[in-house]
Amino acid sequence: MRFELDSRSLLKISGKDAENYLQAQLSNDISKIKTNSIQLNAYCQHQGKILALFWVMKIDDGFFLSFPSSLLEKILPRLKMFVLMSEVLIENVSDRYNHIGLINERHPNAYSINNNLSLLIDSLRVTGNLNHNNLWAKKLIDSCIPEVYLASSEKFVPQMLNLDIDEIGVNFSKGCYPGQEVVARLHYLGSAKRRLFSFKADQEMQVGDSLYCATSKTALARGNRYKGSGIVVSKVTYDSLFYCLATLDVDLVDDQITLNNEHGPQLKRINNE
Length: 273
Hints:
The protein is an alpha+beta fold and 273 residues long. Helix content is 15%, strand content 32%. The model has no long low-confidence stretch (mean pLDDT 90).
């Protein structure tokens, strides 16, 4: 099945210094990107908070960076600002390509995300026989693959989105990048207190909504000033149910979780393991 992903932007990074430039900006080891596969990378600010999550792909003359379009105006000037004296060209090529998500379909030019999902960057702008429903977003949530949008930018460190697990989005052996010291300190000094989980509910939710747990020590201590035990990261409506990925304090995973306050809709955790 094929899905048109029309809410994503695409940047092309080229020039003889392109790999070194990205290596100094992103959280993963760019030199290890495999042909026809996607590498997940966090683009962090100096405090280790994620500005954007990129799907990075290697092409013949450089790299593609794919991410939600809501972040384009925030991210593009920042990336260009750090080019400095490097021989690097950053182009917004979103209007030259289609993002096409593939589910359980093989294509020789597609970039693999996992065993079931892949991404085709189509320069022909072919739109025939493409689906537009929410199944693609549902499959990302089923696979616990996070996204960062403008509404959630600078709210998470990589560990909160599970990017450190098996180093799928963070490499702890590479050199420096913005926020690297903070991310590395969290990794080496102890386990993350907040992680990414998938949930379902019978009412609508929004990216940025808070998760509430009445038994949380913080909730008990702060009462009405309690700001939540997690945040909705991504969400989708599918088959009249509402699904999301959300961060949650790890010591609350077996407790009752509601949305925004104690009277909000209950969230039921989905076990993806």
